[in-house]
Amino acid sequence: MLANQNDPQSGLSARALESTPGKFSKPRLVAAFAVAGISDAMAAWFTFIPPLEWGLDLATALLLFAILGWRWILLPGLILEAIPGLSIFPFWVLVVVAVAVWGTPRPNRRD
After folding, report:
1. Cα-flanking dihedrals φ and ψ of residue 70, to 5°?
2. pTM higher than 0.85, yes or no?
3. What sign results for the dihedral spanned by CA atoms 17, 19, 22, 26?
4. Which residue of 20, 39, 40, 49 is most buried, as measured by CB atoms within 10 A?
5. pLDDT by residue (tens digit) across 58-81?
6. Angstrom distances, CA of residue 82 to CA of 24, 34, 78, 102
7. How far is it, in rounded angstroms, from Cα 85 to Cα 50?
8. Do residues 92 and 64 make contact, with C-beta atoms less than 8 angstroms apart?
9. Cα separation of 66 and 17, whole Å?
10. How far apart are CA 99 and CA 22, in angstroms?
11. Helix 26-45 to helix 91-102 angle, to the nearest 10 degrees?
């Protein structure tokens, strides 16, 4: 059951719900998926030119950090993309899916 945003007894405010990990605005997610998809498509052409592929992956990571904010899960994606031969898999799209679904793992804090 979802808590009413205006109910002070529920303990959840509208602002708290907006900042929940995994909750992003639709334009941000569309932009992140576009960047990831274009990068994965271009990586197929740069597979045999590693310096260009690394530059593309670094630019993609920076763009995704700019769009989605600091997310630790982007770093493993960057590492996986840097391994020669693995760029045939759409890791950037999978990373954006993971960020959209789970956000960044954070410890539960009781204030």
Report:
1. -70, 115
2. no
3. positive
4. 39
5. 999 999 999 988 878 888 888 888
6. 27, 20, 6, 24
7. 10
8. yes
9. 22
10. 6
11. 160
